[in-house]
């Protein structure tokens, strides 16, 4: 529970204090997209297949702070500092760094009983995270395209 409280507080502080490079509308829309993406993954991989989960098997109220604060904050911080105008190599390096950080955080979550694995392996997450981050970037680009052509 300490990890959850620290993560939620850190997420809130990150959202408040990081210098903003993306607009409020972009933060809002991309956060909702990230939350929906997380729910879809969690419904299937947690509830349907029981590969992993948060806290206890099934629906758990303790998941709500993660869903409401942590997912949007991670999305905002990731996209806010994403090197859109840098080289392809710097973009790849940025995603790789985030993949390692997120995998390390998942590892810590596993050892503090915030998260559990059944059929899932940590290296599956390591392989999935880069794709999830690219999806977030593509979603932001799509939102910018829509805003520009509206």
Structure overview:
- With 150 residues, the chain is mainly alpha-helical.
- It has one domain (2-11, 22-148).
- Helix content is 74%, strand content 4%.
- The protein has helices at 2-17, 24-48, 63-81, 88-111, 122-148; strands at residues 52-54, 115-117.
- A two-stranded antiparallel ribbon has the order 1-2.
- The longest helix has 27 residues, at 122-148.
- It starts with a helix and ends with a helix.
Please tag this protein with its features:
150 residues; mainly alpha; 5 helices; 4% strand
Please describe the topology of this protein.
Layout: H1 2-17, H2 24-48, E1 52-54, H3 63-81, H4 88-111, E2 115-117, H5 122-148
Antiparallel strand pairs: 1-2
Helix pairs in contact: 1-3, 2-3, 2-5, 4-5
- The strands making up the biggest β-sheet line up spatially as 1-2
Instruction: Domain count, please report it.
Output: 1
Whole-number average pLDDT?
93
Poorly predicted residue ranges: none
Order of helices and strands: HHEHHEH
Structural class: mainly alpha
Coarse morphology: globular
Into which percentage range does the β-strand content fall? Answer: under 5%
- Biggest pleated-sheet summary: 2 strands, antiparallel
Distance between the termini: 44 Å
As a whole number of angstroms, the C-alpha radius of gyration is 16 Å
Report the count of strand segments.
Answer: 2
The share of residues in helices is over 70%
Put simply, the count of helices is 5
């Amino acid at each position: 529970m300490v990890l959850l409280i620290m993560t939620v507080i850190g997420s809130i502080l990150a959202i408040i204090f990081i210098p903003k490079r993306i607009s409020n509308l972009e933060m809002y829309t991309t956060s909702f997209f990230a939350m929906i993406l997380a729910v879809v993954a969690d419904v299937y991989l947690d509830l349907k297949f029981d590969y992993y989960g948060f806290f206890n098997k099934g629906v758990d109220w303790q998941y709500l702070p993660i869903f409401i604060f942590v997912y949007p904050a991670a999305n905002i911080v990731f996209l806010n500092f994403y090197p859109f105008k840098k080289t392809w190599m710097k973009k790849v390096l940025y995603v790789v760094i985030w993949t390692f950080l997120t995998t390390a955080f998942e590892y810590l979550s596993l050892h503090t009983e915030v998260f559990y694995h059944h059929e899932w392996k940590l290296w599956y997450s390591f392989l999935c995270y880069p794709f999830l981050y690219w999806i977030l970037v593509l979603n932001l680009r799509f939102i910018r395209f829509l805003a520009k052509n509206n």
